[in-house]
Each structure stands twice: as C-alpha cells, then as structure tokens.
C-alpha cells in the first residue's frame, strides 16, 4: 500500500491566530505573577536597609561611648546648630547640637562633623546642617532630605 504525499495545503509552517493569542496570554499571566514577586523583593531589601541603618546608628552610639566615655547628649534643643570652638566641633555639654550631629564621626561623616572645610563658624554650621546623611533615613519612608539654615542674628 502506497501512501500518497499530503497535499500542500495540509502542510503548515506557522502559528494560527488562536495559538499566538494563547501564547501571549500565558506570557501575560507569567508577567502578572512576576511583578508582585519583584515588588516584594524590593520592599524586603528596603526594610533590610532600614534595619541596617538603625544598627549603624546604634553602633555609632556605642563607639561614641567607647571613645568619650559617655553617650551623646540630646543637645540644647532641636533647632540649635552645631557648636564649633576654635574651628573644632565642641564635645560633651558644650555641644548644643543633638546626638545626630555628635555621632557623625562614627557614621563615616567626620568631614561633615568638622564643618567640611568652612572658613567661618557660620560656614561650618551651614555645611553640617545642609549635609544629607542617608543613614538617618529609611528608604521605605522617604528619600534623604536637607534642611535650610540661616543665621538668626
């Protein structure tokens, strides 16, 4: 029994429209499942970064204590700029700025703590206040921000 070759019309070389739509729908579903997973991974990474920032601040407090034998003070009030005496940052009770400024040398921001090379006390204060220290900001809440400062006198 001889089999005759199939007619040319019966041989297909491509996809039908329905097959193509099914493949596109499957890819769409897979992408739809993948997007929330990627968002969860990003959120977990942001939370981990926030936890690491808090750990770094805690370590800075303890390093401050190990170096100076006391924890950083709360400063005089929230609005007081850093105190510089003879071009150097004051320490202890003489420092009017709060703990956030006092731990800067232990957060790899010693240059900001010293006033960033400002020529006058006001220059040093402005450099220190304007500096953006990312470790003080949780990436899940908001990006780092700066504060404007002007001499009240």
Kindly describe this structure.
The chain has 153 residues and is mostly helical. It has one domain (17-136). It is built from four helices and two strands; from the N terminus they run H-E-E-H-H-H. The protein has a two-stranded antiparallel ribbon.
Question: Which structural class is indicated by helix and strand composition?
Answer: mainly alpha
Mind telling me the C-alpha Rg?
31 Å
What is the chain-wise order of helices and strands?
Answer: HEEHHH
Give the averaged pLDDT, no decimals. Answer: 86
Query: What is the CA–CA distance across the termini?
Result: 110 Å
Total domains: 1
Which sequence of strands runs across the widest sheet? Answer: 1-2
SS elements, strand count: 2
Task: Tell me, briefly, the overall form.
Answer: rod-shaped
Enumerate how many helices there are, as a single number: 4
Largest sheet: 2 strands, antiparallel
What percent of residues are in strands?
A: under 5%
Q: Roughly what percent helix?
A: 40-55%
- Model regions low in confidence, pLDDT < 50 over at least 5 residues: none
Question: Which features does this protein show?
Answer:
2 strands, 153 residues, 4 helices, mainly alpha, 3% strand, rod-shaped
């Amino acid at each position: 029994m001889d089999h005759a070759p199939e007619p040319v019309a019966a041989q297909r070389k491509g996809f039908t429209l329905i097959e193509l739509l099914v493949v596109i729908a499957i890819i769409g579903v897979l992408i739809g499942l993948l997007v929330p997973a990627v968002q969860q991974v990003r959120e977990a990474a942001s939370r981990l970064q926030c936890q690491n920032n808090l750990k770094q601040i805690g370590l800075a407090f303890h390093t401050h204590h190990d170096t100076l034998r006391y924890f950083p003070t709360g400063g005089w009030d929230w609005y007081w700029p850093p105190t510089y005496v003879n071009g150097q940052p004051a320490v202890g009770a003489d420092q009017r700025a709060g703990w956030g400024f006092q731990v800067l040398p232990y957060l790899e921001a010693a240059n900001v703590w010293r006033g960033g090379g400002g020529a006058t006390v006001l220059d040093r204060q402005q450099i220190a206040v304007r500096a953006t220290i990312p470790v003080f900001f949780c990436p899940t809440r908001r990006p780092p921000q700066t504060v404007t400062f002007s001499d009240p006198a």
